[in-house]
Amino acid sequence: MSGLGEVSEGARAILRELSRVVVGYDEELKLVLAALVAGGHVLLEGVPGVAKTTMAKGLARLLGLDGLETTLDGAPFRGWSRVQFTPDLLPSDVTGSLVFNPATREFEPRFGPVFCYLLLADEINRAIPRTQSALLQAMQEREVTIGGRTYRLEDLDRGKFFFVIATQNPVEQEGTYPLPEAQLDRFLMRVIVGYPSSMEVEKEVYRLHLYRATEPIEDLEPVVEPGWAARARVAVAREVKVPEHVLEVAVRLVRLTRPEVYEPISRYFELGASPRAGISLLKAAKAYAALEGRDEVRLEDLEAVAFPVLNHRLLPNTESVVELSVSGRRFTARYEVVKEGLYKALNEAKKS
Ligand SMILES: Nc1ncnc2c1ncn2[C@@H]1O[C@H](COP(=O)(O)OP(=O)(O)O)[C@@H](O)[C@H]1O
Ligand SMILES: [Mg+2]
Questions:
Q1: What would the pLDDT profile of 95-139 be if each residue is shown by its tens digit?
Q2: Of 231, 266, 300, the domain-final residue
Q3: What is the pLDDT of residue 1?
Q4: Ligand 1 atom, smallest distance to 25 CA
Q5: How many structural domains compose the chain?
Q6: What is the mean pLDDT of residues 244-269?
Q7: Which of 20, 47, 50, 219 has most ligand 1 atoms within 8 Å of CB, for mutation?
Q8: What is the DSSP letter of 160?
């Protein structure tokens, strides 16, 4: 099967199975999968109890990562690891360190949980900045140094990818360390996980749990093998095309988010998107198109990923946020301002 054929077939199976146990988040799940095949990492933001952890664990099972153990260049890798970020977690608890082995009288590397395919970094904003930085650096560089020796976390030719799903609760303020704006863009996307969208969906969620003693994700069996995601990334990068008119709209959109470029936007944004954000936008749109079974990006793909890719890379206008906040929407004001501003910019970008 051709590269992209394998991508869309695997993706369809993953999304079908995952949406049976994570109810009502079809779009969110698709975005997470798009981030994986685009070679990015994802930040899931939402209050506790909306299935963020469940999404990550379910995906790990479907990708064939549960129970997987491999070695690469002398380092052991687990299929997936979960790290609960807490204020006393140290950088070496994430990456690893040298420890003294009394039997051999030598220092040996102890490999941290980052040595895996899929890392679930739960409640990342509860760890101290130094620990957050250690993870963010590993995400960016896709390698880790322990005792002077550098280990690669990724080798696509050998089927080894490295994918981080971090979660955070935006509401909790006490005892948290918000990720610095400048580091948030290590995440290809920030996916906002809200409450179930309707009465019907919520009822469905409850029904799923009514008569069972275990978590529904425990029934999930792998639908692809781990090498699928590594091959998917290469196929998407090389084979999905971006037509000139889509590139044009993407560039216009990015430029329009800069308040100094387009006056009507200054109500929404204090700072606009960078070229890096624009590149990320196109990479994500390519992945999204591939999940839809296409080898060419359409405007609808760009629209689907614009908010998830850009929302954490733009600084919303403070006055607009405050204005919305006092009308009672304290926790969603920032998202709403960004969403509306992006919507305006996108409409403008499509004209011409
Ligand atoms: N939309 C949903 N579909 C299926 N199960 C859900 C959904 N929302 C919440 N749950 C269930 O609620 C519990 C909490 O989910 P969890 O993933 O731990 O949430 P979070 O990580 O967001 O705090 C789990 O048992 C999960 O299965
Ligand atoms: Mg959780």
A1: 999 999 999 999 999 999 999 999 999 999 999 999 999 999 999
A2: 231
A3: 58
A4: 1
A5: 2
A6: 93
A7: 50
A8: B
